[in-house]
Amino acid sequence: MLVSLVTRLVSRRHPGIHQALAPTRRRFRAVLAVTGLWAAIVVALPSGATSTLISGGFLVLTIAGVEWLLGALLNLAMARTLSYYPTDVADNRAARRVRTQVLVLRRLGHAIIAIVTVGAILLTFPGAQTLGASILASAGILSVVAGIAAQSTLASVFAGIQLAFSDAIRVDDVVIAEGEWGRIEEITLTYVVVNIWDERRLILPSTYFTTTPFQNCTRSGSELLGSIEFDLDWRVSPSDLRVGLAKVVATTALWDGRTANVQVTDATGGYVRVRVLVSSGNAGDLWDLRCLVRERLVDWLQSTSATSLPRTRMVVADNEPEAPPSAPPSSPPTLGG
User: Fold this and answer.
1) To the nearest whole percent, how much of the chain has pLDDT over 70?
2) CA 193: distance to chain centroid?
3) Is residue 258 within 8 Å of residue 314, measured between CB atoms?
4) How far apart are CA 248 and CA 208, in angstroms?
């Protein structure tokens, strides 16, 4: 009742606290119920083997209940932290970095709580202390064997922690890995999940992003440039093509207004290579914008500038008259002649 009263008073100044504490409140009540029942049974039953056995069982239940409660408190603290960093805003780079670090810390915290809980439960058994002493006596050999056996696993764990705090990748970053384009969906201590554009999931170990080069399209910002290339005839007019491009990007919200340009990058082999540069606010919009510009410019070339379409020219020379034989070269003058 006292704890519930305090939380209700706090929730008046901070709305949402009481609802957020609902899972924690239930677990806290369960721990109190187990502890109270344990105390009542210890007081009611006479001392003996039965009382010791029951006390040992309640001690294990209490330790497990405290671990359950600590897990809920950890989830609550992480959730409250994430609530201050919304990701549904235009510039969410800092929020995505914090979210990545919080998710990794939460998994690490749960792992530490679970290990400590198992150790605490084992220490409640009298035989576990002797077993622990014998294990510590051979710790040198076991550490070498465990280090060799878990070398790759430990490397992945440390790589996951490094990724969370080095800001190399964040949740919702757009990356190109293994030739696949996708978004970082989940970062764990041992692996990273990439949501590919066609809804497949690419599972990569954490060490991949610390040892293998990859492309991060949203490392410092979400704005990107994209190119569309055309092989056109020599009669194309780049200035007219710029006018057509301006009309296309002016009619779509996918363009962010930064860049829309036409460049002639090559003119060999019977064709003129034209590159169209456009910009967009994020990788998804840029892909859609490139497809839209490519489609609209193809329609514009067919309807407005058909002479710009690529052509293959061939010269037929079957009846071409033969060239007259060339005169033999005159002999060079001799010295003194």
Assistant:
1) 78
2) 7
3) no
4) 41
